[in-house]
Write a structure and sequence with these properties.
The complex is a heterodimer of chains A (162) and B (167). By secondary structure, chain A is mainly alpha-helical. The mean pLDDT of chain A is 95. In chain A, helix 2 (12-19) packs across helix 5, helix 3 (23-50) packs antiparallel against helix 5 (65-85) and helix 3 runs antiparallel to helix 8. Chain A starts with a helix and ends in an 8-residue tail after the last helix. Chain A is 78% helix and 0% strand. The longest helix of chain A has 29 residues, at 94-122. Chain B is mostly helical and 167 residues long. The longest helix of chain B is centred in the N-terminal third of the chain and has 27 residues, at 26-52. Chain B has a two-stranded antiparallel sheet with strand order 1-2. The model of chain B has no long low-confidence stretch (mean pLDDT 93). Chain B starts with a helix and ends in a 10-residue tail after the last helix. Classes of the chains: A mainly alpha (162), B mainly alpha (167). The A-B interface holds A 25, 28-29, 32-33, 35-37, 39-41, 43-45, 47, 52-56, 60-61, 63-64, 67, 126, 145-146, 149-150, 152-154, 156-157 and B 23, 27, 30-31, 34-35, 37-38, 41-47, 49-50, 53-54, 58-62, 64-65, 68, 144-145, 148-149, 151-153, 155-156.
Chain lengths: 162, 167
């Protein structure tokens, strides 16, 4: 692990992140904006599947998820920047490890949604109720989204000493 | 003014939030602030993006969506005031904090105006998404991005942390 960390801090990206004073704060802001786009679009879709905002067909809300993916991509890029700037602060951090686990579970839950539930959801009318199994997947998605934000916020408080 | 900030900092709640090693103190309140942000700004962003892609808006449970956002605002207001009580001088001597507050106020105004623009009377089917509604949706996206930037930059732009430590 130490050799890997040494390699990361020797990269140009690591140099860029740590050399300029404003890179980290701006990257943090972009990270939060990306997360807000992801949670906003996916969260609103999940809430509709759970029965809120009836009158909107889930398919039209699903179309907004591409912007959630744009936000997610921005969060991943800036997240990689943070890790490159201070890898030991993340690799030895339990909050970060749990965040990664939750991100993987969130991805698996999304895969399950598209494999099992999406065909039924896309045909729902504006006032139709989703199936119970789809609601369980949507509720799990919300739990994972909130869990990821919680762990992300806790990273600061679980940092190993410099 | 510094004497006032100092007295607020000595309040038992402020001291607990700032100095307690418990995860339920500063870390939990900070997380609540983030949770409120994603409930309010996140849902507003989702709504705005959806609105910008539509030509017409159907009659839907607008009240339910707004309840989520106002609950998020309530969580944000309480957690924000608690964080402010912990570090009053840090925020109130930094102009970025006031920019953030102004943008939150403008975003809430845009949110309410959007509701008026997209509310569909019962039985009337659908309503055209007006240019004004689109502008409000776009304004909401800009204002929440600005709020997030200002909020994050607060940690890097303050000149005073605690008034009671003689800044």
């Amino acid at each position: 692990m130490d050799a890997f960390i040494d390699w990361i801090v020797s990269t140009r990206l690591s140099w860029f992140v740590t050399e300029y004073r404003w890179v980290w704060p701006i990257a943090e802001s972009v990270h939060f904006c990306g997360m807000t786009m992801l949670v906003g679009t996916v969260g609103l879709f999940d809430l509709r599947v759970l029965g809120l905002a009836k009158g909107i067909s889930p398919a039209t809300l699903h179309a907004t998820l591409r912007w959630g993916l744009v936000g997610f991509a921005a969060s991943i890029i800036t997240g990689v920047m943070f890790i490159s700037g201070a890898p030991d602060q993340y690799f030895y951090n339990n909050a970060f490890k749990l965040k990664v686990v939750l991100l993987v579970l969130m991805g698996a839950n999304a895969a399950l949604f598209y494999r099992r539930e999406f065909a039924g959801i896309r045909t729902l009318g504006p006032h139709d109720d989703a199936q119970r199994s789809a609601k369980i997947v949507a509720a799990a998605s919300l739990v994972f989204l909130v869990g990821v934000t919680l762990c992300g916020r806790m990273i600061t408080f679980f940092r190993p000493p410099y | 003014m510094m004497a006032l900030f100092s007295s607020i900092e000595q309040n038992p709640l402020s001291v607990w939030v700032r100095e307690s090693p418990s995860l339920l103190a500063f870390p939990f309140i900070l997380w609540l602030h983030t949770l409120g942000l994603v409930m309010l700004a996140g849902t507003n962003v989702g709504l705005a993006v959806w609105l910008l892609a539509r030509r017409t808006v159907p009659s839907f449970d607008l009240a339910g969506v707004y309840r989520v956002m106002w609950l998020g605002f309530g969580i944000n207001a309480v957690s924000g005031l608690t964080l402010l009580a912990a570090y009053p001088a840090k925020a109130l001597t930094n102009w970025v904090f006031f920019v953030k507050l102004a943008m939150v106020a403008a975003a809430l105004w845009a949110l309410q105006r959007t509701k008026d623009e997209i509310a569909v009377a019962d039985g009337s089917g659908a309503r055209e998404v007006t240019l004004r509604a689109r502008r409000l949706a776009l304004l909401s996206l800009v204002l929440w991005a600005g709020t997030i930037f200002a909020g994050r930059l607060l940690a890097y732009t303050h000149h005073i942390l605690l008034a009671s430590e003689g800044f």
